[in-house]
Predict the 3D structure of the following.
Amino acid sequence: MSLDEHSCPKYMRITPVEGWDQLEVTRRVLDMVDMNATLKTDGMGGFNDLSEMGYTHIRTISAHLGEDEHFSPVLHTQIANLKAQIQGTYHRRPSKRHIASYFDEHCFLFNRRHIRVGVMDRLLNACALSVPIRVAESA
């Protein structure tokens, strides 16, 4: 999740991972995060090498958050919203095969939450350009 100049959430990207070991975290960070970014993480060990990789890395353990630190709770709220969206819409746990699509949908909605102009045009365009999925392919 990226933050704006007021430390409010701006954009979010979620991607499935195979595990949270240091190798996987390092691979994902190098893949997705610009070297000029400042990374704010919790105390999980998988994030330990970020400073050595050249990133500005701020580790904050949730129990030690100051009054002006609200990034971690905002992130946790978005994770809870994602879980509620999946349960409320699909009423079941998504399969590994489709989990990335659920994540993409949630991020798409979150990242465009303030863009109200042209919503219907974008929706119709997406529908017209999308490849149909047969029921047998989606199971």
